[in-house]
């Protein structure tokens, strides 16, 4: 599973066989430049969803319910998810949280909305959690297992775990029948997810411990922009093969 927010990247990942594309609310950071995921809106998520859905032929497309679009009530969760599916065209939604959201997950599943649950470090709660911190250490592991089991019983089709110790992730995975997806949760989960700009090395600055950089797109893009500018200044672009003649 990889994130995608636009049609071309979605098409490339889909053609490469990536099984699940996540229209993550990480678009708040990676696309919009907001300093957290909290400000991103339903309308923004719908725009990204439409783009990803149009680029994907085979992948399951999952969209995050953004902060503020589902917490108030199961009814609010259903109406937001319906918008993401109807207007955005996605196949499933993801929401952050544990046992408290069991009624929300039940209502979504009853309405025909496939739900992926997201537990462990949940970025929409970063202020409540005191920042980007590993969750589920020590006694907290049992809480995560109970959360995951409750979400599975409520009908979640998969459980995503972010930034938790490998041993905790293994306990959760072993306690469930549905697949698990990890990010910063070790290798015991059924699948993995990464944010594509992290995975392809597009961002500046240091990446998180759990990121593996499979490419260095930042230097590729930056080198191309520099070469283009130099060509234009030197008059070597456009060349004859880029020009239109009279006839
Ligand atoms: O928004 C996102 O990209 C996510 C993944 C990192 C799990 O929720
Ligand atoms: Na997210």
Automatic annotation (TrEMBL):
InterPro entries: Pantoate_hydroxy_MeTrfase (IPR003700), Pyrv/PenolPyrv_kinase-like_dom (IPR015813), Pyrv_kinase-like_dom_sf (IPR040442). Pathway: Cofactor biosynthesis; (R)-pantothenate biosynthesis; (R)-pantoate from 3-methyl-2-oxobutanoate: step 1/2. 3-methyl-2-oxobutanoate binds at residues 25-26, 64, 94. Binds 1 Mg(2+) ion per subunit. Its EC number is 2.1.2.11. It comes from the Bacteria. Mg(2+) binds at residues 25, 64, 96. Keywords: Cytoplasm, Magnesium, Metal-binding, Pantothenate biosynthesis, Transferase. It is found in: Cytoplasm. Signal peptide: none annotated. The keyword Cell cycle does not apply. It catalyses: (6R)-5,10-methylene-5,6,7,8-tetrahydrofolate + 3-methyl-2-oxobutanoate + H2O = 2-dehydropantoate + (6S)-5,6,7,8-tetrahydrofolate. Its main location: cytoplasm. GO terms for molecular function: 3-methyl-2-oxobutanoate hydroxymethyltransferase activity. The active site is at 162 (proton acceptor). Its cofactor is Mg(2+). The keyword Transmembrane does not apply. Catalyzes the reversible reaction in which hydroxymethyl group from 5,10-methylenetetrahydrofolate is transferred onto alpha-ketoisovalerate to form ketopantoate. Belongs to the PanB family. Homodecamer; pentamer of dimers. This is 3-methyl-2-oxobutanoate hydroxymethyltransferase.
């Amino acid at each position: 599973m990889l994130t995608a927010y636009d049609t071309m990247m979605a098409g490339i990942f889909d053609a490469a066989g990536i099984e699940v594309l996540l229209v993550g609310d990480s678009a708040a950071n990676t696309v919009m430049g907001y300093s957290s995921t909290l400000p991103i809106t339903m309308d923004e998520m719908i725009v990204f969803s439409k783009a990803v859905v149009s680029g994907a032929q085979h992948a399951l497309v999952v969209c995050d319910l953004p902060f503020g679009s589902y917490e108030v009530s199961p009814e609010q969760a259903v109406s937001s998810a319906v918008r993401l599916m109807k207007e955005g065209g996605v196949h499933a939604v993801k929401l952050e949280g544990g046992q408290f959201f069991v009624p929300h997950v039940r209502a979504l599943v009853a309405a025909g909305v496939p739900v992926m649950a997201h537990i462990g470090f949940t970025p929409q709660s970063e202020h409540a959690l005191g920042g980007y911190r590993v969750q589920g250490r020590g006694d907290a592991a049992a809480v995560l297992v109970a959360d995951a089991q409750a979400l599975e019983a409520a009908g979640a089709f998969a459980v995503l775990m972010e930034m938790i110790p490998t041993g905790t992730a293994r306990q959760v995975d072993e306690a469930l029948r549905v697949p698990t997806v990890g990010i910063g949760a070790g290798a015991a989960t059924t699948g993995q997810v990464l944010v594509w700009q992290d995975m392809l090395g597009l961002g500046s600055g240091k990446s998180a411990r759990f990121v593996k950089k499979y490419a260095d797109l930042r230097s590729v893009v930056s080198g191309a922009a520099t070469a283009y500018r130099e060509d234009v200044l030197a008059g070597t672009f456009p060349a004859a093969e880029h020009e239109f003649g009279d006839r």
